[in-house]
Amino acid sequence: MPRFHFNTFGSRNHPDDEGVELPNWAAARHEAVRLAGLLLADRAERVPMEQGWHME
Fold it and tell me: How many domains does the chain have?
């Protein structure tokens, strides 16, 4: 199974060194959206929008 890494970038960069095994790109997209939602909901007040936060 392929391993996907979800790195986040903003005022600090957080590389995903471990990654997660998922069956395909559709599952990886679903996981990226789910993870981004969790990160933003948990840390909304700390997300530096002017810094161009993004996930790759």
Answer: 1
